[in-house]
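User: Okay, second chain of the day. Same drill as before: sequence in, structure tokens out.
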Amino acid sequence: MEAMNSGSSKPFSKKNGIPVVAIVGNSGSGKTTLIEKLIPVLKKRGIRVGTIKHDVHGFAIDRPGKDSWRHKEAGARMVLLSSPRQVAMVRDVDHDTPLDELESYFSGVDIILAEGYKRGNRPKLEVFRPEVHDKPVCVNDRNLLGMVSDAPVDCGAPRFMLNDAEGIAAFLIRYFDVAVSTEQARKKAAS
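Assistant: Same drill. Structure tokens below.
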């Protein structure tokens, strides 16, 4: 489904009913720090948050010698790890999986914050620090929703200060029209 926010001319996708925003910027700009600040602010407002971390270099989630590692080493294409509190999946892929494909793994969340995917065709917030990099990466990107920087940047999108997690969260909630989850609404009503 393609939707349009009434306060902006920029479209966004809600294929599974869950808005996805990519938090982008050069390495060392503060993307992870921003996401760490946004999650508790959104959670405090009753918004259930999912995240995706894009890693172009690859990663290891399992440890050599553990049973699940042994399953993969033996040739399993996919391994699910399950406990009473968490579930994790390790699956072989033949391409760099785009956000559109990863969305299908999510349920029970109201918004997805994706770290990375700066070249993707998704709404983006760019974190920019001129002391780390010369120029922003998404200034001419039509999907740029906002710039997160303490320095003035002419990008045609709203600018938020690096420490303004409250303001950024409020902007995302308004832009994507994110509603408080039914579960959270019931808890608030009961208290």
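DSSP finds five helices and ten strands in the chain.

User: Thanks, on to the next one.
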